[in-house]
Write a structure and sequence with these properties.
The model has no long low-confidence stretch (mean pLDDT 90). Strands 1, 2, 3, 4, 5 and 6 form a 6-stranded antiparallel sheet that branches. This protein has 1 helix and 6 strands, in the order ββββββα. It is of the alpha+beta class.
């Protein structure tokens, strides 16, 4: 049983739903906020373990370090 991890970014929050974009920008999905870790807001970076290609949302964690790195990269490309 192999496990991997995928990165998702919270693009926006619409009511009780977070719109998530995958790290490769190839996939987006709506996820109820009550399934995600506490403290999720627009721009939050989530590390989500996967088992057999299925995300384990209950085990998702916030990655503040990666969020700051992404912001810094965005600033330097402006």
């Amino acid at each position: 049983m192999s496990e991997s991890e995928r990165t998702w970014v919270v693009d926006r929050i619409e009511g009780e739903v977070a719109v998530l974009v995958a790290d490769d920008d190839q996939e987006a999905l709506d996820m109820p906020l009550n399934v995600l870790p506490r403290g999720v807001r627009e721009g939050t970076v989530l590390k989500v373990p996967e088992r057999k290609g299925h995300p384990l949302w209950i085990s998702a964690t916030l990655d503040e370090e990666l969020r700051l790195k992404i912001l810094k990269q965005a600033e330097t490309t402006l």
